[in-house]
Amino acid sequence: MVCIMSGASRQLTLFLYGCCVAALGVQAEEHCPAERHQAAQYVAAVYEHRSILSPNPLALTSRKQALELMNQNLDIYEQQVTIAAQKGVQIIVFPEDGIHGFNFTRTSIYPFLDFMPSPHLVRWNPCLEPHRFHDTEVLQRLSCMAVKGEMFLVANLGTKQPCHSSDPGCPNDGRYQYNTNVVFSSNGTLVDSYRKQNLYFEAAFNTPPEVDHITFDTPFAGKFGMFTCFDILFLHPAVRLLRDSEVKHVVYPTAWMNQLPLLAAIQIQRGFAIAFGVNFLAANIHHPSLGMTGSGIHTPLKSFWHHDMESPEGHLIIAQIQLEDTAGSVPDHCNKANITNALSAMPLPSDSLDSDEKPAVTLISKISFT
Description:
By secondary structure, the protein is an alpha/beta fold. Helix content is 24%, strand content 24%. It has seven helices and 14 strands. The protein is globular and about 50 Å long. GO terms for molecular function: biotinidase activity. It is an enzyme of class 3 (hydrolase). This is Biotinidase. Its EC number is 3.5.1.12.
């Protein structure tokens, strides 16, 4: 939810920041030369959303009341998808907690949760099959937005999965509740989902029993990785996921509270893109009174970002990204293999440890390695 640093992740944070500073320094001094390639491109968008929040997130409400609030946020999402579609966007990312808000208890968030079937077990298009599962109204709207915009759509919502007493991890109320990212293809099919592993004092949600290392394929840019907010400061899933050499793009819903000197949202996002040599699509919540702003589309060498502590409005960022061979388009100090080797030598938590210790529009700008 709100993301600030814990001791277990401090060294990774410092490392990412160091990569950012070092890379920027080398770029300034040595101009960080990169090969030019004539390659295809794709158009991406991230939306920094000023979410409509529950006036009392601790109060118990009905499913009908919860849907009324969530549909107000989804109406704004739909407006942004329409604008993005007019600009030729092929993938759009929305922030963490953007649909339901935050500061719920486990009980008070329950009416806001959609049932989440496993995309690995069930092929499902919620827009075309709205009555296949109960309590999936939010998933249905997101699916139909993807169809309407003819684009891949990434969003974050709360989900629920029933469990049985025979399951030793099953909570007393008989259900798991997860902070979940979902991906829909341009035809509305549910492509994949990711359950947030590293919760930050989110009593409403459960930690998944196993870490999700989720990737999904697109016809326009190949393989994308996905994780959420606080996850970026941990070995699992972020670092392990990016050891896959085919992952050259990351989608990143977040609800990030800026904390100086090392945890400004843009700083962390850009540092990550540089450190791992990936294109990083980060969508943050917009609540300046809470210190929450900072979204961007970052390549290893360039960024197009939004950070505004004054305007109360959301902001849509659209950028055109060149498709290039990452290993051949960034210099050695930005090479993902070198970075992951360096991370392996750091005293990070071991694999066996639990990682828990009016909307403005920016016009399309071409981002490339120059």
